[in-house]
């Protein structure tokens, strides 16, 4: 990696570490915004998907693949972690056919708790003590690559017929059905894609920290994701990137607050809801993320 | 030839209250049929049953010879039944262009992965769809509103946008739920003209719910009158307006329509 970066001294290991956290949080925020912002559902359990992705990817590099090849297989490892999370997304998507709003929030909350309790009770995975031994495979290159993949895939999605259908669910589900939008299929797609990228972010996280435990994927993690989504702005890719960057850097700058630092996130959420519910960029995009001309003109 | 839409013995309850009982109606291709009746007569319920918003408890609906009674809404719409709503239901925070494009949702021919990686199939299809949407926007004099969010459009434009969204898929049957609601006399006249033109241009069959008698009398070849979920009369509008049961149930005992000049009441 080092040879890729100019030796300016700016990218010291600490800064690189922060940048990687920013990147992982960007993926998480983009993915959650698809469900909570674009589709208008309210998932509060996305840390569950992240946990599944993290554990599956970690098991692969620690227990399944020989150490010598795991570095080469890292992209595939992340992919498998993402797919496992997507499979879980399928399970959460089904209740979303029948329930909306508060009720779906409770279902996703329950899902998050189930994932955490299951992980805590599998002794082979270290139970509540956590799982370790992962090689440090996550580097700035892989993080940046996945941020880019997520951003492009989601931009392409929301600017397609599928994306418009997903937004129609948010606007008026009955009217969407009556304009021939198959809302069930789209909900499935949205949850699958969202969970997939969240799972990939989990895999990156596990191989950055080299240690994961079930508590890392509790409702608190989900709350962080929500703060980043609503800080940046719902229904906006630009907002997701901004929200993740600002929140991550802010928490880092507030290290001196010690344990009080963890009050910042929830407090920020409360203040946002009162003073700027649409976030920084709600439903708006920076110029370079708006639909290309050929997509909107005749 | 079999009728385009054939509804037989339709019944529907809301918690024991009969909203529709034994409703039957056949609509031939090319017809313009009116569905009238006082408030709460069950007119919109009929639309909701046709389009699958409510599950059918009893009865059968055939469209183009196929039994659509158990189909989900999106499939019914994709099969060629489009509708508008009594209280406009646009996608408020989406642009007018996106609203229209959504009307053709079921017709895009690319898969999820085409969209995610912007394959050639996606590009071509999206271009075609967008061009078609612009044609519709122009047809309804909405092209300068293409980027405007639906909720920011004036009322009349919202009504037209709903029509454009319904028509982009090229439906066979159009269900109009009180299109003249909230319109004044001259706006209603405009609407009558638009409905006539659109019916010709898009080769439509139209089933229309309407409160404004002027609209019904001017447009419909045939009218079915509902009261408390039951059909109380059916026939040409000029006969219907003198039908004693209709006068009693719908127009009131005095029958204000009977006082209208015959030329104003002349059918189309």
State the gist of this model.
By secondary structure, chain A is mostly helical. In chain A, about 70% of the residues lie in helices and about 0% in strands. Chain A is globular and about 55 Å long.
Describe the protein in words:
With 298 residues, chain A is mainly alpha-helical. Chain A has a domain at 22-217. In chain A, 69% of the residues lie in helices and 1% in strands. Chain A is built from 13 helices and two strands. Chain A has helices at 13-38, 46-64, 67-70, 74-98, 101-120, 140-158, 161-171, 173-177, 183-209, 219-232, 237-253, 261-275, 293-296, and strands at 131-132, 211-212. A two-stranded antiparallel ribbon of chain A has the order 1-2. In chain A, α4 packs antiparallel against α9. The model of chain A has no long low-confidence stretch (mean pLDDT 92). With 268 residues, chain B is of the alpha/beta class. Chain B has two domains: 1-80 and 171-268, Rossmann fold, CATH 3.40.50; 94-164, no CATH class. In chain B, strands 6-7-8-3-9-10 form a six-stranded mixed beta sheet, sandwiched between helices. In chain B, a hairpin with a 2-residue loop joins β9 (222-227) and β10. The two termini of chain B are 24 Å apart. The chains are: A mainly alpha (298), B alpha/beta (268). The A-B interface holds A 153, 156-157, 160-165, 167-168, 170-172, 174-183, 189, 283, 294-298 and B 51-53, 72-75, 77-78, 82-83, 85, 89-94, 97-98, 101-108, 110, 112, 115-118, 122-123, 126-127, 129-131, 134-135, 146-147, 165-166, 169.
